[in-house]
Amino acid sequence: MTTSKQPAPLPAFAMLVLTLVLAALDQTILSTALPVMAHDLPGDLPLAWVFSAYLLAATVVIALYGRLADVLGTKPMLLLAIALFLLGSLACGASQTLMQLVLARACQGAGGGGLLTLTMLTVAALFPPEQRGRYQALLGAAYGVSTMFGPLLGAALVEHLSWHWAFWINVPLAMSAWIVLAWRLPSAQRAAEVVRTSIDWFGALLLSGALVSLLLATQHETLNLPERMSLGLLLALGAKLGLSFVWRQRRAAHPLLPLSLFARPAYAAVCFIGLATGVALYAAVVFLPQYLQTGLHLSPTASAWHLLPLMAGITVAAVASGKLLRAQAPAAGLTRLACLLMLLAFGLLVAALRWLPETPLALSASLLPLGLGLGLLFPIITVVAQRASPAQHLGIATAAPVMLRSLGGAAGVALLAALLTRLMGVAVASSHAVGTALATSLQPVFACAAGGVLLALLTSWWLPRSQA
């Protein structure tokens, strides 16, 4: 992929940051607005569908956006993603029933799912390789900060305006970003052989079916699915479609996700590390607030504030990681440091739950090294994935780790939640109070999340030991 020779426009980068902030906010802003929405909107769908519709649509389109960016260029795909996100936000705010809101969230997710991948790809188009780490890190920092403030912004909008503004706030900002990016982004000069490349739509359909089946399986208990859509059926269907997708990719002339990428040790390693970071991140942001609210009876807003060290660590470390990568620090060494910090965090969480279970500050402080580790890894995964892949596959090579991180977070949390439910049943049966039982049961849950990080640490030996 080549672009016209011109200075990288900083206003365009600022709009990339804005679009990423909007996508990040939209994943957490509803946590405090949802109870009010449930009261206002008629309908008998489970409220979990409001989150799941976005997650399903966003995860399914990630790989397709990456491949379309390789064939058609990053700029038109980014503008399409922003437009879908904008239209979805308008429809969400105007929804009069729960069903309308769920459908609008799916449209919003179809746009939002492309924003993270496409903003990172646009950075690769705007900046030379030696500067990309810095700007990828700034994107990671913006993502971390906005995720942290999502619940607080949602609470403020509901209290002073209405839940509709949790969506409508996106509209003028997304429209401004679309206009500036349409004007300032350079258009890619596509090579003739790339333009003629076809899209493996059948492969995209198989991958979409596999992802939807697996994601529905991870949320089977909360979505109130029909009896015929049993957990076993969804898992079997997801596995069958996944194997069919791999078979298709081995034979397609222009595969959606070229399997040759995974023959490169560094690329396969960062994909697995992306999967592990998804499990680690979502384990913390899902289960710790659950303990703070259920076990220690804190309010949702108060529990959100206790995630501050996690988000602060992500922000600081992402910026530092970009500077280190720019200074030619080896990706392998930085990844090992990040994994060790994350292992330390889960060890501190287990220790705090065992010996200081009624001290929220001890639990909150344990999240700082986890945030530092995650922040270090976010730019590394993108930079290494892009350097390890050929130019004609840059889009899908950037998208795959993002897709795996999302899938790892959803599937990992579902498996850990099932383990927590089983452990809670045993602990409560042993006459423990709910808070004590939850603290006891969460210890092996966080230990399992640490096990995934340990595997990522071992995988780091396949990463490049120099930036050359």
Sum this structure up briefly.
By secondary structure, the chain is mostly helical.
Question: What report would you give on this structure?
Answer:
It is a single chain. This protein has 468 residues and is mostly helical. The chain folds into three domains: 1-188, MFS general substrate transporter like domains (Growth Hormone, Chain: A, Up-down Bundle); 200-255; 260-468, Growth Hormone, Chain: A, CATH 1.20.1250. Helices cover 79% and strands 1% of the residues. The chain has helices at 10-28, 30-40, 48-72, 74-94, 98-126, 129-160, 165-168, 170-184, 192-195, 201-218, 231-251, 265-295, 300-305, 308-326, 331-355, 360-387, 394-429, 434-459, and strands spanning 2-3, 188-189. It has a two-stranded antiparallel ribbon. Helix 3 runs antiparallel to helix 10 (201-218) and helix 15 (331-355) packs antiparallel against helix 18. It is globular and about 60 Å long.
Top keywords for this entry?
468 residues; mainly alpha; Growth Hormone, Chain: A; 18 helices; 2 strands
- Uncertain segments are 1-8
Gap between N and C termini, in Å? Answer: 21 Å
The helicity comes to: over 70%
Major sheet: order of its strands?
1-2
Beta strand %: under 5%
SS elements, strand count = 2
Q: How large is the count of helical segments?
A: 18
Instruction: Briefly note the CATH topology name of the largest domain.
Output: Growth Hormone, Chain: A
